[in-house]
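[step 3/7] fold_predict: job queued, chain A
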Amino acid sequence: MPELFGTPDNPASDAPVAFDLRTSDDRRLRAARFFPHGKPRGTVALIQGRAEFIEKYFETVRDLLERGFAVATFDWRGQGGSERELANPRKGHVDDFTFYQRDLDAFIGQALERYCPRPWFALAHSMGGAILLEHVHSGATPFQRVIVTAPMIDIAGLPFPEAVRSLADVLDTLGLGGMFVPGGKAASLCELPFEGNKLTSDPARFNRNAGVLRAAPQLAIGDPTIGWINAAFRQMKRFALPDFARRSRTPTLFVACGRDEIVSTRAGENFAQQMQVALHTTIPGARHEIMMERDELREQFWAALDAFLPGSGS
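[step 4/7] structure written:
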């Protein structure tokens, strides 16, 4: 059975259950489920971003359990406690984002359907938000409502975007997709100094996550590969199609971060405006990871979630 790694300042909730999933292409994914005391009001599927891991969300899991929800989550292929795609386990790689849909299908079929009470809701961050929005676009989602925080609709502040996209495609075509992006490093963002980080303005939570990786360095990945970034560009190109957002009918809450330097807040807002049933809110002062932010910023996020999910608020 897979292991979860708690630390003194980042303990797991009571009686978590870790287990493996198997995708249709036989990749092993680490998953976990958590149940509240008493009868659950439903289940929140917690869907991570790039380079994340289950342990990073222990606090968020506790917050959801306190609201009466069961929680299920998993590590994407190539990161956390799941099977890697390349021999170098620090390279964040995938050939195409369609493989992530296989991961999500395995999670729904082998975790949610087997163990988790309905109704089902989804809470997804960054890359996970992009994957979830593609899933919702298919029209066959089992989620009644979804929340996406800082969804990766487009990259923020990318210089000469068309040239960068073309270069990534050329390098990938030449067989260099397994290399780090130019300047890429094996260190996780959580392993770098707090000063200058783009993830959170909360040093305690930043250091807490770094402590998990000191205890379990095998969970970490570094920068993405050329292949991953090229796959991400192809996914973002789909989001720009004229009818993509309009075909998504699942009620969706977009939570943007006012100081996000990783994904484009404007692109997310424009996408939400084109959807048939969507709300968009921005939390001023928050960096990219709102669930890892300071208490006064996280409280705004939880207020938005409580207003959006049935049965969540008091």
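[step 5/7] annotate
The chain has eight helices and eight strands.
The longest strand covers residues 28-34.
exit 0
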